[in-house]
């Protein structure tokens, strides 16, 4: 699998949007500025390999890509027939992502709904998703419960980063999916290479049994 062009800004710390090593805050302004000052070509990357593993086991339905960034995963999912809601705090990221999707043609672009929202203050819609995925988004302790609420019974939640989703999910309601995470080399915006040691967790929301 090629890792060239994978998203570089991965593996940052959590803690309510603040990096543990310094005081930079990963708020909307940070992300708007990051995408505004990035080379659009460098934003193109391969879709996340763990999403591919999970999604390939599922029948395409409705999916939420939470913190979609430049949209590689949203486009891949739409190509596979998923109806995608691609959400990000950054409208600049969404503009980049929409432009990439439109190059795929109306079938793919037409299956993606772009939504600007802050996941830390986001409320799950009542009609849930078959798959909710999030890759490398901060403040997961605030966000994962909201994402979990957006998964319909029988649907799947996938979180790629260093966060123990099982700590915030009710074990009576969720069945973990065993996934193997491997170290992988990714290309950063500045052209350097970086080794990622992902932690990947997924779980299926157990559908209530009818008596
Ligand atoms: C490291 S990038 C990852 C982007 C994409 N998921 C990927 O793997 O290429 C993190 C993304 O999360 C978005 N993000 C960060 N905090 C967010 C929040 N509170 N609500 C929605 N999106 C957020 C950023 O704008 C950025 O696009």
TrEMBL record:
GO BP, one annotated term: methylation
Alphabetical list of Gene3D superfamilies matching this protein: Vaccinia Virus protein VP39
Domain Methyltransferase, first and last residues per copy: 63-155
Xref: InterPro entries: Methyltransf_25, SAM-dependent_MTases_sf
MF terms (GO), sorted A to Z: methyltransferase activity
Signal peptide: none
Assigned keywords, A-Z: Methyltransferase, Transferase
Pfam family, one: Methyltransf_25
Region (Disordered): 1-22
UniProt name for this protein: Methyltransferase domain-containing protein
């Amino acid at each position: 699998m090629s890792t060239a062009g994978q998203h570089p800004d991965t593996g940052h710390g959590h803690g309510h949007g603040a990096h543990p090593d310094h005081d930079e805050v990963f708020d909307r302004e940070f992300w708007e500025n990051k995408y505004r000052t990035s080379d659009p070509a460098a934003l193109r990357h391969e879709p996340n390999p763990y999403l591919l593993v999970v999604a390939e086991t599922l029948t395409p339905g409705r999916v939420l890509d939470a913190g979609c960034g430049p949209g590689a995963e949203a486009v891949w999912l739409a190509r596979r027939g998923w109806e995608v809601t691609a959400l990000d705090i950054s409208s600049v990221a969404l503009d980049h992502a929409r432009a990439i999707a439109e190059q795929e043609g109306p079938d793919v672009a037409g299956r993606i709904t772009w939504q600007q929202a802050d996941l830390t203050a986001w409320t799950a819609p009542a009609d849930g998703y078959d798959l909710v995925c999030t890759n490398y988004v901060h403040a997961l302790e605030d966000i994962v419960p909201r994402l979990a609420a957006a998964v319909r019974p029988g649907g799947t939640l996938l979180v790629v980063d260093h966060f123990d989703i099982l700590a915030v999910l009710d074990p009576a309601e969720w069945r973990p999916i065993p996934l193997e995470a491997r170290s992988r080399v990714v290309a950063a915006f500045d052209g350097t290479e970086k080794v990622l040691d992902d932690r990947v967790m997924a779980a299926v929301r157990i559908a209530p049994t009818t008596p």
